[in-house]
Write a structure and sequence with these properties.
Order of helices and strands: HHHHHHHEEHHHHHHEHHEEEEHEH
CATH topology of one domain: Alpha-Beta Plaits
Number of helices: 17
Amino acid sequence: MDITDHEVRNVALAGLCHDLGHGPFSHVFDNHFIRGLQRKAFNSAAEVNGQQAFWTHEEASVMMLTDLIETHPTLAEQVTEQDIKDVCNLILGKKRYSGGEQRPWLFDIVSNSRSGVDVDKFDYLSRDSKKMNVNHCTFSRDRVMRGARVVSDQVCYAEEHEFDLKLLYDSRYNLHHDCYQHKTVQALECLTGDILTETDGVLYNYLEAIRDPKQYIQLDDSLLSEVRMSTEPELAKARQLLERFDSRQIYSCVGEKGLSPEVAARAGTVTEADIINHARDSGDLRPEDIVVRRFSINMGMKDRNPLGGVSFHRLGKDGRYERFSRPPSEMSTMMPEKCQSNAIRLFVKDESKFALASNAFRQYCAEKLGGEPHVTRHFSHSQQQQSQVAHLSQSQS
């Protein structure tokens, strides 16, 4: 294929730098906190003053990489403007390579929008499974990579490796179900988001910082230490929330309601005010007392069967590799009919309002979502402590 050294280096740079733009606490900052600030500021997903309303960490990766090269002359001497454009396009997934001949298969390596099979997924599925000590990464990464070939401008995979790819998609779904979207993880994310909100405009102006590499590089997880050591009255609420974080007095999960694809599409965005407005007796429950989380878990291509985007290769009659795709009727019989699950969860910040939030959530689900939610019945952390103290007192008396 006459792969050039420039192409090898540029793809390697894109792979190494594609996540440079993650903010503190990664996806909590990117997908929830910043988007929440932008919704308040812009009230739409339209372009505002020439800037995309919903900022992404990939944009920040390009910003940070460009600034890194511009501010270090020794780096600037080693890459051309064309190289920088090509690496940035690889990070952003823009299928445009400026190096003369168009080679679209290069964009199947770091961030594959066609099938989701890429080295980014190979990396985080393997790393996170190991670090969290869960046996969810069951596919053979090396086997899949050894069998890959470039055919007709696409990275194609060996026909006999279809089940390995199915296991890759399963690994992604299982990690999201058991870890990334676990209710305790979401509760901690909500609490972390509230801490960051309290620091906005005090420690940093975050909507300015995400557009300025000199400010953005200062944002890391040490934000919590800054809050912990602060004495400013403006950060009093942030310190209280951080104390809850440190002592694991996290928000309580009220319940969860699974949503069919039809109901999920019809429900649209659900706000905290929507939940309270449908309650017949909300008492003193306010929107700021609860947090709604709408989320989806899928195999990497939303509601589509990801195997439908995979290209395979086989030897043709002329002895050359030829590319082909599986028709739906021939795809792995182990693939589910639906590849995405949708759900909504409700969290309450003040445990004294748990019952009010539970009733409001039940009524909303019954009226708007067509059924009863699964309401959490487990004790909260503080209730567990009280129960243990009471049990010990009884056993000692």
